[in-house]
Give the backbone structure.
Amino acid sequence: MTVVVSDRVLAPVYRRAAANCKMPSNKSVSDAPITQLVNCRILRDHRLQREDLWVREGKILDPEKLFFDEKAYADKQVDCHGGIVAPGFIDVQINGGYGVDFSRASDDVGAGVALVAQKVLEHGVTSFCPTLVTSPTDVYHKVLPEVKVDDGGGHGAGVLGVHLEGPFISVEKKGAHPERFLRTFRSGDLADLTQVYGSLDNVAMVTLAPELEGSLSAVRELRRRGVTVSLGHSVANLSQAEEAVRHGASFITHLFNAMLPFHHRDPGIVGLLTSDRIPEGRSVFYGMIADGIHTHPAALRIAHRAHPAGLVLVTDAIAAMGLPPGRHTLGQQVIQIQGLHACLEGTQTLSGSIATMDMCVRHFKHASGCSVEEALEAASLHPAQLLGISHHKGTLDFGSHADVVLLDESLDVRATFIGGQEVWRKKPRKKTDL
Ligand code: ZN
């Protein structure tokens, strides 16, 4: 993959148009350089289209307006060699990676987040929600103020806010969350939440169990503050889950894992996928850890076929992601890695994964038989819709942030761009490797 740079490049289609058109005055809206990704198929309007992608000042441009209104051309072309250009991946559940555990309140939380932000670029991730498992109160109070929300760039993927998984979850479905730090609500009001978490300023999402007393007012309180509410680690029945959705919950944390199994007379939280009691105009999304371990391919297919538009790929990756097998941590717990399995030490309890997002995209496509477009949207458009940011992230629509992943036919990541700037590129293989 090479980058071709040339001055004042005009794409053939616009060169033809230029020959047939009276040109407007040479009045530019902005003098900032324009980049054109050429020789690619871009994911737009739910399908791959043979089009170029035009970028200026970090945003995707409408080339027709650019040419006819501004008479402006590309300053730089990037040859994608026939690759796929998709919106950058968004991971809304990632506990850490590369030795960094977000739940461990290290001396320099910011540096840990920055390291992961930088390393996930090679997996096509352009923004993410650092996730904390159930932790002691002092961990929330120390970590949350230090995780700064930002758009990302050359330094790494953007941070969309923290995902707090717990501590208001079910003891019976705690999974790898330490029981001694689980909490119940007193009333579910703001004081209840801030007493545990401190400030909600940098929080994007909270996972809670809707069967807990006071949870509905907590859902309302969180929604009022723009925090996405997810249901998980729970023994809720379907009507409790539907009630939480009516109060503002919109996500299911790692569907099938840490919840009641599907039962035909009461399908539990899983039943939300086909519920007819979701308020008009609202949609429920659900997270899937498509690592080939957390969910059987048949279950993945059931979920996808029942509700394809709600599927959100998450890695649920832990500190061990990107490191060799052995003993690692997840918050206050010790995790043993064997192969692709991450288990609470001495048990068979799965506790996060060591999967990367691009791996999940490939596995999801393979296991579900879905289209390339569907696999890519599950890692980009859907998480953006879930977080309410699809007007500028998760799509390649005009005006969106130019956060882009360039992939080959096998969905291997070739390069990653944030705000139109190339932030990672796969090194070409040496001749001796061929
Ligand atoms: Zn979990």
